[in-house]
Amino acid sequence: MIAPMAPSPALSGRTVPGDVDATLELLGAQDYVADRRLATSVFLALKLTRPLFLEGEAGVGKTEIAKVLAAGLARPLIRLQCYEGLDVAAAVYEWNYPRQMIEIRLAEAAGGASREGLAQDIFTERFLHKRPLLQAIDPPAGTAPVLLIDELDRADEPFEAYLLEVLSDFQVSIPELGVVRAVTPPIVVITSNRTREIHDAIKRRCLYHWVDYPDAERELAIVRRKCPQAPEHLAREVVAFTQRLRSLDLFKAPGVAETLDWAEALVALDRIALDPAVVNDTLGVLLKYQDDIGALAPDVAARIVAEAKAAAAA
């Protein structure tokens, strides 16, 4: 059995926030503009040592939560990017088979090695490749990291079943070695874009929060923080335009990430205000599907620009 390292006081990271207000300050210090409900979910996940399951549309800031927690708490960030076909070898651990074979050949050439003794020698930690889940449970520096399990909905359902042991007891079972338990549980953030439903057994082990599109006030605050070079009037028009665009029947409404990309693109073009021509030229920054771009006819774009200018001036 692998003996987990005791956490080093010098590497244990910063203390978790003591209340919701402190959590808001922690997120804000990393330029993440959160509402109080999200900050409450984050605080409770930290306080209760429970995984935080964040669900919502792509581009609304779910993944960023794990990044800002790692930065704000001075913890390593370990990211497991999920995809179809993800298995234990890629997510948890894998034996270094080529190195084991070399060890076997060397032992055979030297002679005198028993089969039982050789099996014990090659199934040790030095032949083990630790993947993200095992790295988070048994971190090399002894510091409880932030574990980001990103876009779990892209993984297959059998992988969800494997996660149950990890999320319930913060442990991993390795047949050749035994059970590896975390000395200090990692901070776990799980995200899903809801391309499929995640099993209830996973959600029961987590605190749940739906991350929605921000309202205009909060989105403007995000643009000010993340794109400070954008003139105030342009930032207001960009936010007002994007907010109205989300009310249309689009295949994929623009997220906050697209709002920020668009603001940066307009700044790069030296624009200080929106007009229908520049909107038409830069729609590919804001919308990612041709059907959505085609649905935004010139007259519709001009109307939304006029509405956005009126809202920004109000």
Question: Would you mind describing this structure in some detail?
Answer:
- The protein has helices at residues 20-29, 36-48, 62-72, 88-91, 97-110, 115-122, 132-137, 157-169, 200-204, 216-226, 232-245, 256-268, 276-281, 283-286, 290-295, 298-313, and strands at residues 52-55, 77-81, 93-95, 128-130, 146-150, 171-174, 178-181, 187-192, 207-210.
- The chain is 49% helix and 12% strand.
- It has two domains: 9-92 and 131-210, 3-Layer(aba) Sandwich (Rossmann fold); 216-313.
- With 314 residues, it is of the alpha/beta class.
- β6 and β7 form a beta hairpin.
- The model is unreliable at 1-11 (pLDDT under 50).
- The strands form three sheets. Strands 2-5-8-1-9 form a five-stranded parallel sheet. It has a two-stranded antiparallel ribbon with strand order 3-4. A two-stranded antiparallel ribbon has the order 6-7.
